[in-house]
User: Which sequence fits this backbone?
């Protein structure tokens, strides 16, 4: 499923990893964790001027063409005012401006609302979450972003295209083989309706992936709550390691593409906590070379999860 080339430096090991299916590469340098860049979070607490708070959301956010916003439980979904996708929506998860922890029902409702809005599009959909400014959130108030386009994003395209080739070559679904392989590895975290493990070739620090047994948004409904449960479990694990900021994305195939070798999956990565120095964990390797430098070995992440659990 992946290859590893390891070298020894004067201070420890350095691994070069490559995912066999897609060719995605990363470098893992555990010694860099000793830099202790992830200090306690410095959070901006003020809700002044926040357009997502209850007293402002009706006046500050746009509506769909029919003059409505989509409400599911406490969540509110509406078009993104500054879209970068053909269909781009925002879902305010909770009225709480600075929620540190999330209620299962609240998160499931927000995911459902986003999915319902994206279902109006025929494109390749994803549901995404930047939490806190150091993870790219322009608003502190917790919110999801849903996007859909006629073409998949680069990462989704890699997996969808390569997954179809894998199915044609082997007569098996890659994701099913991956789950069987990872089920016996040190990277396994837990499994219920959704399979969760540390990604062996991570795209970001402490990357965890959940593989769903469905492919498209239309099949997603019965897995919203198990997915919300799994996400919250990972977030608690991150907090136990001192990480508060994160990114998450749920990737889907296009409608009516069932049985073509893809599985929907959720990916989460830890990010540096918000800090007064404006330090970020993405630099030229991540943004320009598309080859992230990772601090934590995925096998260590599995051990840490079992220790904390």
Assistant:
């Amino acid at each position: 499923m992946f290859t590893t080339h390891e070298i020894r430096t004067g201070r420890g090991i350095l691994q070069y990893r490559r995912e066999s299916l897609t060719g995605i590469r990363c470098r893992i340098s555990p010694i860099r964790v000793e830099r202790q860049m992830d200090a306690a979070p410095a959070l901006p607490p003020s809700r002044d001027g926040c357009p997502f708070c209850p007293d402002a959301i009706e006046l500050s956010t746009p509506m769909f063409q029919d003059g409505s916003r989509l409400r599911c439980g406490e969540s509110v979904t509406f078009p993104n005012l500054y879209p970068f996708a053909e269909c781009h929506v925002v879902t305010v998860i909770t009225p709480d401006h600075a929620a540190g922890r999330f209620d299962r029902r609240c998160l499931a409702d927000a995911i459902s609302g986003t999915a319902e809005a994206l279902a109006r599009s025929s494109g390749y959909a994803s549901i995404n979450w930047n939490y806190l400014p150091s993870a790219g959130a322009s608003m502190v108030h917790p919110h999801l972003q849903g996007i859909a386009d006629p073409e998949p994003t680069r990462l989704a395209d890699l997996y969808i295209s390569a997954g179809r080739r894998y199915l044609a070559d082997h007569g098996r679904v890659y994701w099913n083989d991956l789950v069987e392989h990872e089920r016996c590895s040190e990277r396994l975290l837990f499994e219920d309706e959704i399979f969760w493990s540390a990604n062996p070739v991570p795209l970001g620090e402490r990357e965890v992936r959940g593989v769903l047994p469905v492919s498209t948004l239309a099949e997603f409904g019965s897995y919203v709550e198990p997915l919300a449960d799994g996400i919250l479990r990972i977030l608690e694990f991150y907090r136990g390691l001192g990480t508060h900021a994160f990114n998450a994305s749920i990737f889907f195939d296009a409608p009516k593409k069932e049985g073509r070798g893809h599985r929907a999956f959720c990916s989460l990565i830890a990010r540096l906590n918000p800090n007064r120095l404006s330090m970020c964990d993405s630099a030229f390797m991540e943004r320009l070379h598309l080859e992230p430098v990772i601090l934590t070995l995925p096998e260590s992440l599995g051990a840490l999860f079992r220790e904390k659990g």
